[in-house]
Amino acid sequence: MVHLRRKILSFGGLLNQLQPNVRWSSSLKIRDKEAVQPERTFKYSDMSVRLAAPHQLQIKPNVSDLAFGKYFTDHMLKVFYYEALGGWQMPEITPFENLVLHPAAKVLHYAIELFEGMKAYRGVDGKIRVFRPDMNMDRMNASAVRSGLPTFNGMELIKCINRLISIDQEWVPHSEASSLYIRPTLIGIDPTLGVATSDSAMLYVILSPVGSYFKSKESLRGVSLLADPRYTRAWPGGCGDRKMGSNYAPTIHVQKEATEKGLQQVLWLYGDDHQLTEAGTMNIFLFCINDQGEKELITPPLSGLILPGITRNSILAMTKEWNQFKVTERTITMTEVRHLLSENRCLELFGAGTACIVSPVSYIEYMGQGLHIPTLDHAEPVHRLIHKQLTEIQYGYVDHPWAMPIE
């Protein structure tokens, strides 16, 4: 037992060298056989807090200057996982700082990582609310399983995130045009080369006050999209339905091509029939008059090609409750979109996601043809009604179980 204790303490010393900001206790105790089994999760009750010193505090930007992901708050959350030390370690809130990684860390070589996107909103009553964080935790754990990274208890992470937000609460904008973006990230940090499961990992959370994802002029005009069937974002059996960085890096050069054409985002197509999957990083919705003369809201199904968006899920649940039109999850093709446009039955096309909430689409460039979408041509478009109800929930105009207040 003494020999085993020395080996573990020695390993802790090695990890101190690799991760100098982690504190390894010299009073590590080995109790019984069951106690040294890997922990299933970290616990909020074990969390420690190290507040930023006055010289580490940053000047808060004006709300009017907020861009997406440009500014970050004073603190961050970190939790390490080491299989050799029993799994998850104690969570810690620290001053915002750079990460220290071994040059051979798996995240740097094999993209063993994942992330989430969440938001906290300052309500009209002054309370801060986080929108449906339980769904983000479920999706994050699903991505972890696919990446060979450790899973955790989602509610424990929610509690830790809420504490982090409460410490940096003055960074939550006092504006209904802005919010606090929350970025939980999980990376493999094993200092070894080789494509394999990572026995060491780091989970961290950073916060960023943000304004609108698209510029105000772009929002008024609607988003323009490049739909080029030469490019594919995801395919059956792949990982397009998981929130991993490896899904995004290959899209950058296509986005650049769209920008060079004067377009804002890419409408990702799949298959010989050119199925609509996602618009940039957004889920896509079509509102139309169907062949039976009914108004219908349609979005692609969760077939593995698209991300199971929290905003997407919320829109489907809300509009079904309205019972004002048919709501369907099914495949949409570009042939159908063009046919509906030719018969003036395509009413609206819009994207939805955490960053943009709801974003109307006004133009698609497809196979050398410019398609003008009449999304903004209606007095009371559906996308605007959806946006209104979502923001009323997020900013506390209505009491709703989707908005979790931070005590």
Task: Describe what is shown at a glance.
By secondary structure, the chain is α+β, with helices and mostly antiparallel strands. The chain is 25% helix and 26% strand. Its cofactor is pyridoxal 5'-phosphate.
Would you give an account of this structure?
The protein is 25% helix and 26% strand. With 407 residues, it is of the alpha+beta class. It folds into 2 domains: 44-210, D-amino Acid Aminotransferase, Chain A, domain 1, CATH 3.30.470.10; 216-396, D-amino Acid Aminotransferase, subunit A, domain 2 (D-amino Acid Aminotransferase, Chain A, domain 2). The strands form 2 sheets. Strands 1, 2, 3, 4, 5, 6, 7, 8, 9 and 19 form a 10-stranded mixed beta sheet that branches. Strands 10-11-12-13-16-17 form a 6-stranded mixed barrel, surrounded by 4 helices. Helix 3 (133-147) packs across helix 4 (154-167). The longest helix is centred in the first third of the chain and has 17 residues, at 2-18. Mean pLDDT is 90; it is low at 1-39. It catalyses: L-leucine + 2-oxoglutarate = 4-methyl-2-oxopentanoate + L-glutamate; L-valine + 2-oxoglutarate = 3-methyl-2-oxobutanoate + L-glutamate; L-isoleucine + 2-oxoglutarate = (S)-3-methyl-2-oxopentanoate + L-glutamate. GO terms for molecular function: branched-chain-amino-acid transaminase activity. It comes from Nasonia vitripennis (Parasitic wasp). This is Branched-chain-amino-acid aminotransferase. Keywords: Amino-acid biosynthesis, Aminotransferase, Branched-chain amino acid biosynthesis, Pyridoxal phosphate, Transferase.
